[in-house]
Structures are given as structure tokens and as C-alpha cells.
Amino acid sequence: xxxxxxxxxxxxxxxxxxxxxxxxxxxxxxxxxxxRNFIVAREMLLDGNWILTTMNGEARYxxxxxxxxxxxxxxxxxDIKNVFGYRLPSVLTVCVTGIFTYLLSKRxxxxxxxxxxxxxxxxxSFYVLGIVFAAPxxxxxxxxxxxxxxxxxxxxxxxxxxxxxxxxxxxxxxxILSKGPVSLYALFLPFLISYTIVYKLDGKxxxxxxxxxxxxxxxxxxxxxxxxxxxxxxxxxxxxxxxSRWSSYHVRPFYYYFSFxxxxxLWTIPxxxxxxxxxxxxxxxxxxxxxxxxxxxxxxxxxxxxxxEKKTRYLMPVLIPLAINIGFYINYIITNFKSLKNKKExxxxxxxxxxxxxxxxxxxxxxxxxxxxxxxxxxxxxxxxSISLLSIGLVMVVYLYKKHLKRVxxxxxxxxxxxxxxxxxxxxxxxxxxxxDNDISxxxxxxxxxxxxxxxxDYMSPEMMWHYGHKITRISNLSGKIDLVEAxxxxxxxxxxxxxxxxxxxxxxxxxxxxTYDLNLTGLGSKxxxxxxxxxxxxxKRKQ
Length: 544
Known about the structure:
Blueprint: H1 2-7, H2 9-21, H3 32-47, E1 54-55, E2 58-59, H4 66-75, H5 83-109, H6 112-123, H7 126-134, H8 136-157, H9 162-179, H10 182-199, H11 203-230, H12 232-248, H13 268-274, H14 277-280, H15 287-306, H16 319-336, H17 343-371, H18 379-402, H19 405-430, H20 443-449, E3 454-456, H21 462-468, E4 473-474, E5 489-494, H22 499-505, E6 509-518, E7 534-542
Helix pairs in contact: 2-5, 2-6, 2-19, 3-4, 3-21, 4-5, 5-6, 5-7, 5-8, 6-16, 7-8, 8-9, 8-10, 9-11, 10-15, 11-12, 13-16, 15-16, 17-18, 17-19, 18-19
């Protein structure tokens, strides 16, 4: 089996990603970032706003549109309400990230085996998978930049042909058209600096890189220019808000990212060990490439740390060079484990893989504690998964005892895949406490059936707006006055106003509370409960 998967590394990477993500792609709750992007894609299809993008009919230029185009094209093959269709391109982009991590590693190392490890590590890193749901448009920018780096390295190491210049420029341009200059700063620039340190760059190469960047800015920047010319006031306002956030929004100390290796999840211990440069530098298969991946990782973290605004998800591009760095350590211990005698070297290996195997062995107990409230309805899947993970964990222990570390490595990935496949969606439904019978997605149909209109008084979260399924007019567009609504009967959605407040403020109407829509996955007393995910629906009837 091992020989078979190693014979088809790209196919294996694709299959692993698809098995982990596709079966449950529709089951997880839509996040705030997803909701914004999905609404923009939906309005592309419904209203034709492909260039000057909108959310709820209002201009949204904060993010360039390439990922949204791909999502819209994807969902056009499904039902427009189908979350699967919106998320599918992001999943395929994770596949691309894994494939080009493998291909770049293969070109760097000329070692197919270690390159395969790198590809597997990156697609099973925690935040590479998490970004699909937390901030799905980020993965596009970093994947396009990774492809550009692959072609750039070919140009730097073999020949900087016209083909290489064009391909590198196109993919860097696609990155800009996905997330602006973010990935160029977080992934491309650290690579260039690291490459210059390790391999050096001559004047001709620098000129060609400058040409690539110039062409990439043209390819990726046309949309920004078009929006700036077509709607200058709105564009400048949004640009000012976005840039001001870099220094005033989510400000964290410089050292905030120093635990970045934890974001690799499954690979936290190997990630930390791989960063012990003095220990590993003389043990790796290719010292020069190890220096490149090490500097690339560290410089990426430093550049991100300089910016005052910091969010955990911004670390995702660092996980790409980190995966290559981890691969050096994994390859070293797999190759030399049987001959290692130093307890200091053996301990992290046994601790890492022993912990993973323990998760599998203990899953029947862990799973029972997690799902005991719903065990009757999911007993069959609980038994099957428990037996599977228990078996994988026990086999891992046997192979770890026999020091067959390659088999242990592949089994740890298999265990992780099974956990992703089963635990994540089950946990998502497990914590769903709110059991309101009211579904805001049905509200628009009810309004249409009664020839009535609903208006938004103050705020509706992107998640709620996504579930509502249609644009809704804000009262603020009517100078903030409900009295300006001409209809004798209409609906009002609000997140903060109580029935008593509304009756006091709008005495010309009879007001009835109709429903409360709540998207929280936790109960009212929980720290995770958010009022922004709640909207109250009232019927206003004008008094005669």
C-alpha cells in the first residue's frame, strides 16, 4: 500500500484533501468571512455585479473579486443556496497548495520521497484546513503565490525564459486579484529575501524579477483602478478604512506570532524541532535548501510581526515553508530512527507519535464523553469510528515499538483524516443549543406570499443575511425614519430594539413581535454567545 501511494504522490494528496473536506463540506456553520464572500458571489449571479461587487446591494470593494468569481462559477452548477458549491473551489485550492508544495520541494530537493512528505504535511496542517472555513479567500492568494514561486525558482535555477516571466507574472497577478498585496508581502517577499541570502541574486535576475512584479501589478491591479475610477468616493472610503486597520485594528504585541508553529496542529512538535537550526543543520539531506526553508519561515513571521494588526489566520502562509522545514526533520528521523541512541533525540519522536496513537486508542472514551447526549442517534458511526481509530492507534504503537517510523508517519496521517472526517461535523451539531423553530430563510417566502416588504432597522450580521437569502433594504437608506415607509403594513428586523422601545418611538403603528432568529451555536449564558447573531422580527401596522 505504501509503495502504491508513493508511486502516485499528487493523486494521493488530492484524495486525502477531498476525503477530509468534501463529505462534510455543507455541514459546518457558515462563518462571518464566508458569509460576506458568499453574499457577494450570490449577487454576482442574481444581479450581474461581477466587477463592481456588492453585498446586500451596497458596494463592497474591500476585497478583490477573483475568488468570488470562482465561487460564483462553481455555485452556478449547483443550487444557489448550496454551501457545497461556494466552498468547493476553496477545497480544490487546498489541493493545489499541497500539489505545488510537493512540486516546489521536488525541484528544490530533487528528492521525491521527502517532497511527498512535505505535500502531506502542508495539507494536514491545522490552519491550512481551517482557512477554508475561517477566511476562505486567503487560500487563493497564497496558492497563486506558491505557484508563482515554483515558476520563479525554475527561472532562477535553470533559465529565466519569457515563458517563466509570463507564468510567474500571471500567478502573482492572480494573487493580487485575490487578496491585494497580502500574499506578496507574507509569502513572496520572504522567499525572495531567503533565496538572496542562501543562493545570491545577480543584477540580471533582479531586473527580471522587477519586470515580473511590474507585469503582476498590471494583471492584478486593473480591478482596483477600475473601481477607483468608476466609484471613487466609495472606493477611497473603503480603502482608507482598510489601510487604517493595519495600525489600529486587532493590534497585538510584536511577539504575538512567536508560537506560530502551533498552527501546524498535528505537526506542532516536529515543527518546533525542525526550527532548532543548530541541532538539525548538519543532519538534513540538503543543507542549502534547509537554510532556505528555515529563513523563509522565520523571515515570514518577522515581517508579519512588524505590522501592528495581527490575527491568527494571517500566519497561514508561513505554514507553507514551515511544512518544507518539517519535512527535513521527518525525513531525518524516518531514515535514521533505528540507529538513533540519544534519548534527547528519541524523546520528541516517541512523545509526538505516542500522543497521536493515544488519541486513537482513547477515542472510544473521548467520543463517548463528547457525544453522549446524541449517542443513540449516532451509535453505528460511533462504533465504526471507535474501532477504526482504536485499531490505527494500536498498530501505530506496534510499529513505533519496532521502529518502522515511515509506517507510523503514514498511519498518523490516516488517523488525522478519520478524525477530520467524523469529529468536526459531529461536534458542530453537538454544540447546537438553540432550537428555535424560526428559520429566517423562510421569511422571504412568507413575505412574498403576503405581498409584504421587510426592512432592516439597524444591523444584520453577514451570517444572518446569508441565511435570509435575499437583499433587504436598510431603513438608513430612508433617512432613518420608519415613518417614510409608505406601506400600511410591513416587517422590521432589528438586532437591538425591544418591543417596548419600538412602541415608544413609533406610536403611529400597532407593533407585534413575530419571531426571533438566532444563529448562535451556544446558549444565552455562554461567553461565546453573540447578540450580533440575533435578529428580532416585528410586524408594523399603521394606525387608522
